[in-house]
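lol forgot to send this yesterday, sorry. struct tokens for the thing we talked abt
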């Protein structure tokens, strides 16, 4: 039953993070005036409206905008990971993720062209979601796409955080760190943003293409030095932008809140640990396991039946040559730490439906998992959580979900 409940709780989180619903909650149109959050736009003031952007959820976000504004949209361009949703007025362009590729470069150039050609009486609606950084690459000369790809691989392998990776991207590319909005001036820019970063930092989500940048070339240079990676040429980013509204329409917090509501409805005493969880995956797993141990042995910090929820995004430092992702590794490390302590179910999955370079969103385990396949610690040493959970039928496979608000972790103690 606990496994079934974990899946139900995760589905509730996905439902709350649906990008179409997120946009329609924040964008209203009465035939004359477009209301975005607390700001109003009289459409009679604009000659042309186009939709641009990138991200794993950008297609669904763009579709919602199309449904709201209909024929008033004259066109646009979106770079996305998977072509799964049709569009009538906006071009959807499949691009590479997590390593940027030539398709993404082609699309980024087209997005830059639309922004550059925009006039003062144009409205650009920019939809940004998780994955936009990799999906919209436009290296500044003389940096090549190949150098960008290699640098991205090195930073990912070193366990660099998304904040660090995006700081580099902003200072070596031409659309990130507020540069897309700067390119579109003097047009009006309305950015609808689905957050996939801890703390919902606007200038980090998708590397902040429409947001004044708080980082500097000094910050970027320090990251190259920290990880001993050959530096790329850096340039400074805009620190102030005019005629730009940035509106967060969805986040991990909303997903976790929905998960908590369903967990309570299912009868669990529920605690949200944090939606700001980051750090090394194995360390985070150990802390979560320690909380489960406390519940199992002393019925605190919440009474059984208990549900502990957390969100955010951890990183994995590669030590072995196996296959896996941060969510699968979290579940494996937590299961090892909890071995022999009693009955508990551990679940972790990415809301985008993908976990590292695998076809799984994450994994699930309980007190019987380690008995089903020997050698769990060896799999963990090799970062080979995928093949471990493949053996015990513990992989969670959702396929692309069309959203991306980081990860959802669930601990259930019956």
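and heres what i got for the seq, position by position
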């Amino acid at each position: 039953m606990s496994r079934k409940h974990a899946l139900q709780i995760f589905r509730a989180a996905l439902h709350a993070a649906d990008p179409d619903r997120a946009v329609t909650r924040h964008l209203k149109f009465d035939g004359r005036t477009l209301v975005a959050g607390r700001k109003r736009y009289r459409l009679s003031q604009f000659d042309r409206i186009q939709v641009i952007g990138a991200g794993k959820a950008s297609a669904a976000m763009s579709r919602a905008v199309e449904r709201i504004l209909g024929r008033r949209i004259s066109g646009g361009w979106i770079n996305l990971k998977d072509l799964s949703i049709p569009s009538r007025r906006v071009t959807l362009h499949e691009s590479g993720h997590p390593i940027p590729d030539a398709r993404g470069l082609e699309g980024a150039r087209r997005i830059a062209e639309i922004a550059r050609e925009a006039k003062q009486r144009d409205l650009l609606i920019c939809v940004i979601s998780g994955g936009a950084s990799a999906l919209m690459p436009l290296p500044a000369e003389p940096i090549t796409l190949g150098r960008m790809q290699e640098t991205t691989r090195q930073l990912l392998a070193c366990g660099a955080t998304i904040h660090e990776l995006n700081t580099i991207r902003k200072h070596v590319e031409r659309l990130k760190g507020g540069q897309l909005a700067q390119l579109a001036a003097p047009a009006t820019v309305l950015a609808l943003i689905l957050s996939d970063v801890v703390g919902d930092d606007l200038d980090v989500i998708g590397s902040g293409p429409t947001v004044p940048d708080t980082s500097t070339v000094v910050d970027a240079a320090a990251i190259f030095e920290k990880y001993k990676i050959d530096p790329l040429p850096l340039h400074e980013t805009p620190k102030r932008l005019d005629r730009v509204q940035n509106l967060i329409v969805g986040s991990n917090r909303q997903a976790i809140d929905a998960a908590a509501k369903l967990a309570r409805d299912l009868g669990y005493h529920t605690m949200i640990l944090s939606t700001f969880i980051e750090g090394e995956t194995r360390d985070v797993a150990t802390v979560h396991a320690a909380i489960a141990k406390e519940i199992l042995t002393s019925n605190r910090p919440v009474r059984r039946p208990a549900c502990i929820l957390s969100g955010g995004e951890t990183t994995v430092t590669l030590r072995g040559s196996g296959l896996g992702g941060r969510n699968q590794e979290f579940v494996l490390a937590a299961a090892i730490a909890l071995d022999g302590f009693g009955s508990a179910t551990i679940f972790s999955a990415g809301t985008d439906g993908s976990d590292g370079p695998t076809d799984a969103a994450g994994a699930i385990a309980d007190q019987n998992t380690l008995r089903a396949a020997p050698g769990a610690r060896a799999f963990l040493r090799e970062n080979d959580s995928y093949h471990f959970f493949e053996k015990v039928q513990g992989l969670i496979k959702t396929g692309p979900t069309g959203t991306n608000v980081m990860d959802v972790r669930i601990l259930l103690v019956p």
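The longest strand covers residues 269-277. anyway ping me if u want another try
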